[in-house]
Design brief:
about 300 residues, alpha/beta, TIM Barrel, two-stranded parallel ribbon, 11 helices, about 20% strand, Aldolase_TIM, BKACE, metal-binding, zinc, transferase
Amino acid sequence: MAARKVIITCAITGSVHTPSMSPYLPVTPDEIAQQAIEAAEAGAAILHLHARNPENGRPSADPAVFLQFLPRIRQATDAVINISTGGSSLMSLDDRLAAALTARPEMCSLNMGSMNFGIYPLAKPGMEWQHEWEPQLLEATRGAIFKNTFADIEDILKRLGEGCGTRFEFECYDVGHLYTLKHFYDRGLVKGPLFIQFVMGILGGIGADPDNLIHMKHIADKLFGGDYRFSVLAAGRQQMPLATMAATMGGHVRVGLEDNLYLGRGELATSNAEQVRRIRNILEALSLEIATPDEARVMLELKGAGEVAF
């Protein structure tokens, strides 16, 4: 029997961690492009991308910043490029969609509900900050809600899905998000095969716990049968353990400095590629094969790299 193919997604920079937390977090377009290319070379089939202000590292929704690295990544790799529609809880919906609507990528992430998204505990007492915005942004999440209403989701599905032919990484931070996705599935607004990312370990969402992963998969099986693929994103130190568990359960995996800055206890990852190589070694030791970008395109029924606008 042929070995099963596992898709590795690498989330390159995100909007959770800040430059003061790690010198290896890519911030400038050059750094994001370089680390994305290296991650693809290491085995990532999908690159999940955010942008940052090149001057100070603050999360940015500016399409002009995205376009400083998107074409370079596409020219250097055949990886599937996945642009965030999450951005930051402090951005408006139009801001969050601007880059994706400009670039018309093969994939975008789509958070399946409004939620508390608390990253303020990352501001540890006594930390030395490079930029004034860093502790301010983290603390702002104590009183902010990440807003993705039913109307917002409908808007994203229409403008990006119907309008651009983009498929989605449906980010489900809790069990209720699976039922929200089922609502849109039943209405015919999303079609299989769905690509569901179980997001675990964010304060405000489901905990990064093996029992929770088993439960999330059980509910997804009940709701979607065989018409979905799942991947697991575990924030922080549970990244590798739960990714490994997901792979043994028939799923796919996501790693990257957006989700976890470390390679092991007390050891900062020096690059995204380092994390990709680590999970690839684990998967191959389990006799699983790594999906190529084109194999991922077939599995997820993507439109193809030739249909993007960058």
